[in-house]
Amino acid sequence: MRVLGVDPGLTRCGVGVVDGTAGRPLAMVGVGVVRTPADAEIGRRLVLIEQGLEAWLDEYRPEVVAVERVFSQHNVRTVMGTAQASAVAILCAARRGLPVHLHTPSEVKAAVTGSGRADKAQVGAMVTRLLRLDAPPKPADAADALALAICHIWRGTAANRLQQAVAAHKSARTQEPVT
Amino acid sequence: MRVLGVDPGLTRCGVGVVDGTAGRPLAMVGVGVVRTPADAEIGRRLVLIEQGLEAWLDEYRPEVVAVERVFSQHNVRTVMGTAQASAVAILCAARRGLPVHLHTPSEVKAAVTGSGRADKAQVGAMVTRLLRLDAPPKPADAADALALAICHIWRGTAANRLQQAVAAHKSARTQEPVT
């Protein structure tokens, strides 16, 4: 499974592509950041994010896109920008018919570090280890995007296994002879 | 000036097209709502909003798009959806090179009723009167979209006049003989 992780933001939108399935070593395929100038108008910034993400989708052809779920508990202004950038990411993926999955920051941290309260340094360190990189990807938005992709591969596969197990169980039950 | 007003929302995205300039009677050109099913995935909903707004832009060819500015003081879940829908509206307009202007709900209410605290019924009544309609447009999101367009025509023109006056003043000053 190839996953594009997107850590949405207007100024820096982190993107990371990871290949993998649960239980096997993961492989980083690409990582980077789509940037837009802070002094540009909001419309221009959203167009630049769309163009940047389209280029990533064209080049890496992911099967799934994982986007960080935005909460509004923090700074209002920042959250609006994050929500708008995430909308563009979700739109770009859905327009291509790609499945989009949202994961909360806690889910992502818990997936890669074991703790939903891990700090950025810990997430960066685990991403570096899990993908066998020489150094943590910079900026943190890029590392977070890779963590999102890893989170999705592990959680997605676990969810799939559960669904398969349930389906197998149901199938077995319906195949029981009705005597 | 032809303005497309957009009252963003995931379930109902109000759209209204108004022709006019300040000081002259306004004319409604079109009004409606882009709807998406509440049980659809977020990606699907954003794609439907994009397609709906593109159809309005294609049909009515506005010169300017006015979108309600989203604040996060209300229900968190609703605000996120509104921010995402507004991002799609801003993106659709900016991609065509159309100027996008954001107006707060208070600005819109104050523009059409004289009070920033007017209720929906009052806004609907004034939109009906200003556009010489037989009845208030339904649902309220459609009336709000028309109010946004009217607000933009009046404020935009006022802002233009102020800019022109300032420019004329500056120009007159620089043209004064330096004696």
TrEMBL record, chains A, B:
Encoding gene, per UniProt annotation: ruvC
Function according to Swiss-Prot or TrEMBL: The RuvA-RuvB-RuvC complex processes Holliday junction (HJ) DNA during genetic recombination and DNA repair. Endonuclease that resolves HJ intermediates. Cleaves cruciform DNA by making single-stranded nicks across the HJ at symmetrical positions within the homologous arms, yielding a 5'-phosphate and a 3'-hydroxyl group; requires a central core of homology in the junction. The consensus cleavage sequence is 5'-(A/T)TT(C/G)-3'. Cleavage occurs on the 3'-side of the TT dinucleotide at the point of strand exchange.
Catalysed reactions, as listed in the record: Endonucleolytic cleavage at a junction such as a reciprocal single-stranded crossover between two homologous DNA duplexes (Holliday junction)
Family (UniProt): Belongs to the RuvC family.
Protein name, UniProt field: Crossover junction endodeoxyribonuclease RuvC
Chain sites annotated for binding Mg(2+) 1: 7, 141
Annotated cofactor note: Binds 2 Mg(2+) ion per subunit.
Main location: cytoplasm
Cytoplasm found in the keyword field: yes
Enzyme class: hydrolase
Keyword set, alphabetical order: Cytoplasm, DNA damage, DNA recombination, DNA repair, DNA-binding, Endonuclease, Hydrolase, Magnesium, Metal-binding, Nuclease
HAMAP family: RuvC
Organism from which the protein derives: Streptomyces polygonati
